[in-house]
Design brief:
There is one protein chain. By secondary structure, the chain is mostly helical. The chain is about 75% helix and about 0% strand.
Length: about 220
Amino acid sequence: MIEDLTNAVFLLVSGDPALWQIVRLSLWVSGLAVVLGGLMGVPIGAWLGLRDFRGRRWLTAFIYTGMGFPPVVVGLVVFLLLSRQGPLGVLGWLFTPTAMVVAQVVLALPLIVGVTMTAVREVSPELRQQMKVLGATDRQVLFTTLREARNGVIVGLVAGFGAAISEVGAVMLVGANIRGQTQVLTTAIVEETRKGDFSLALALGIILLLLAFFVNLATVFINRE
């Protein structure tokens, strides 16, 4: 184990091209998924947090259920949609990084929506009432509320990124773990472990842990009062 760990550190500092290609693809796929999920999820979550309508509890329960979707089921659904016989098969996305982005967006979106919605609901209703009295538009009320709830919104985005970059089953199904094309950190760890290349698996695992640490560290500093 010590030898494998030593070799893993050597791979990290030596700039192994195959290793860093996997890291770059992982960051691109998960980063793009969170950006797309944030562009959709933050406005939806904010709208749901500000509105009171019939059936809101049912919709909230559905969103919270989505926050715990089994990734392999998400991968299966996306696979069926993008397969040749599926409704989106004409796009030719299956077994490409694009398909992996789609799967990760589906996984991250409920997290971003749910956490944003909760954060917005925790903002004092009196603030919105005061803004309305002062003549603020709905858009101004929305942006001001989001600013007050920004810590929760950031946590939602970080949670979405964590769910995306640490996922295995969905990206394995829709990306097929093709070396040099669709292989990301988690799927590469699984493959290298099966092959017995524990040094590379450990190196990839260390990178995954470091990414999680630095993302959360950045969140702590951004949310610092």
